[in-house]
């Protein structure tokens, strides 16, 4: 039997997923967890399961917090309404990422994928998981940001640029600037490359918000709703920038 834990703070969603998993005779749900606090306690006191189905946004935080405090050797399949955490999810031993509402065929595919990573010794290399990320790359379409104790969804097409300042990455919209949980390197991997370009080490810009481009002495870009007057494209990125503009 495949020992399995469900992490989900919405009881109807938890019950539905458990019913769906009951269609797989090899799956045994051994626990259902509803919060970060409960998850940390459970994983600290119990033998870790082979497979975990986990929502990301819980009532008292993100489920990532559980596994950052109590690392799990089990595989994680994230089940969530938000698509912004794909990259971070795969860094925490995730092998799949299902957007709600979960479809039967998607769930079945995720379980089959889990089985494919189980050789006779039940081990898997980090390199295999990294290869899976490349195959299943998801383009980020919206980002969840925190405003005090509140959460807000920002569509990526509303963002004029992402920029790094004092080791924090911010996103700029017409409304305001928001901090994010990403690094610029992570964003570069998951943003739509036709819309977003890494201008330099500090900025990723959105083509929809370019107002002016000054070509001398270096390429300098002026954006709408930006934190600075001009953004300079790195010298070694100028050719790529020109190609990107007409792609």
From TrEMBL:
Keywords: DNA-binding, Phosphoprotein. Pfam families: LytTR, Response_reg. Coiled coil: none annotated. GO terms for molecular function: DNA binding. Residues 3-115 form the Response regulatory domain. Residues 143-247 form the HTH LytTR-type domain. InterPro entries: CheY-like_superfamily, LytR-like, LytTR_DNA-bd_dom, Sig_transdc_resp-reg_receiver. The modification 4-aspartylphosphate is found at residue 55. PROSITE patterns: HTH_LYTTR, RESPONSE_REGULATORY. SUPFAM superfamilies: CheY-like. SMART domains: LytTR, REC. The keyword Ligase does not apply. PANTHER family: STAGE 0 SPORULATION PROTEIN A HOMOLOG (PTHR37299:SF1), TRANSCRIPTIONAL REGULATOR-RELATED (PTHR37299). This is LytTR family DNA-binding domain-containing protein. It comes from Chryseobacterium ginsengisoli. The lineage of its organism: Bacteria, Pseudomonadati, Bacteroidota, Flavobacteriia, Flavobacteriales.
């Amino acid at each position: 039997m495949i020992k399995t834990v469900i992490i989900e703070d919405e009881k109807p969603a938890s019950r539905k997923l458990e019913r769906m998993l009951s269609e797989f005779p090899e799956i045994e749900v051994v626990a259902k967890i509803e919060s970060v606090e409960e998850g940390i306690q459970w994983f600290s006191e119990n033998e870790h399961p082979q497979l975990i189905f986990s929502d990301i946004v819980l009532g008292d935080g993100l489920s990532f917090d559980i596994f950052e405090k109590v690392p799990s050797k089990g595989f994680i399949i994230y089940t969530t309404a938000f698509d912004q955490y794909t990259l971070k999810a795969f860094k925490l031993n995730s092998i799949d990422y299902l957007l709600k509402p979960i479809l039967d065929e998607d769930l079945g595919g995720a379980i089959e994928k889990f089985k494919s990573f189980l050789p006779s010794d039940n081990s898997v290399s980090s390199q295999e998981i990294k290869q899976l990320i490349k195959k299943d790359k998801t383009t980020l379409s919206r980002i969840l940001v925190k405003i005090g104790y509140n959460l807000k969804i920002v569509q990526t097409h509303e963002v004029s640029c992402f920029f790094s300042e004092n080791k924090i990455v911010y996103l700029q919209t017409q409304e305001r600037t928001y901090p994010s949980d990403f690094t610029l390197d992570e964003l570069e991997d998951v943003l739509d490359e036709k819309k977003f370009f890494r201008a330099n080490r500090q900025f990723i810009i959105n083509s929809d918000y370019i107002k002016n481009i000054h070509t001398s002495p270096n390429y300098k870009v002026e954006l709408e709703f930006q934190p600075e007057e001009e953004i300079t494209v790195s010298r070694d990125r100028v050719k790529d920038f020109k190609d990107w503009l007409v792609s």
